[in-house]
Specification:
Layout: E1 2-3, E2 11-12, E3 17-18, E4 23-25, E5 28-30, E6 35-36, E7 41-45, E8 49-51, E9 56-57, E10 62-66, E11 71-73, E12 78-79, E13 84-86, E14 89-90, E15 95-96, E16 101-102, E17 107-108, E18 113-114, E19 119-120, E20 125-126, E21 131-132
Parallel strand pairs: 1-4, 2-5, 3-6, 4-7, 5-8, 6-9, 7-10, 8-11, 9-12, 10-13, 11-14, 12-15, 13-16, 14-17, 15-18, 16-19, 17-20, 18-21
Length: 135
């Protein structure tokens, strides 16, 4: 479902796929060849959400942008089922596993991994190729 919010409608590249029960609301951009799977919610609550090319946002993930902290996901990323991202920047080639959480102002470097139920706290900078362990 594509919803207008604060005068902005989601923009989805022609080659991207959005599942019929996913919700994109407001200033959300989904890049080339990306997929937003069933039950995922991408919402721009005052700030944009951008998903790069060749990404997969899996089932029931929640991705929010805020006025102070827009959310940007680089290219070739996986956002796992039930993951929660709010107001963060995610580099290219990042893997965010099932149930992972990335909070406001955090930066996840290129090639990093946040494993199952891992958390990246407020304003944390995770360097390239870093790994946040399970839980």
């Amino acid at each position: 479902m594509l919803l207008e919010h604060r005068g902005n409608r989601p923009k989805v590249h022609d080659s991207a796929y959005v599942a019929p029960n996913a919700t994109l609301c407001g200033d959300v951009t989904v890049g080339e060849n990306s997929r937003v799977m069933f039950g995922a919610t991408l919402t721009a609550e005052g700030g944009p959400v951008e998903v790069g090319s060749n990404c997969v946002v899996m089932e029931n993930a929640v991705v929010r942008g805020t006025e102070r902290h827009p959310t940007k996901i680089g290219g070739n990323c996986v956002v796992g089922p039930g993951a929660h991202l709010v107001g963060c920047r995610v580099g290219d080639n990042v893997f965010l596993a099932t149930g992972s959480t990335v909070f406001n102002g955090a930066v996840v470097g290129n090639g990093a991994e946040v494993r199952v139920n891992g958390t990246v706290h407020l304003r944390t900078v995770l360097p390239p190729d870093a790994v946040v362990p399970i839980g």
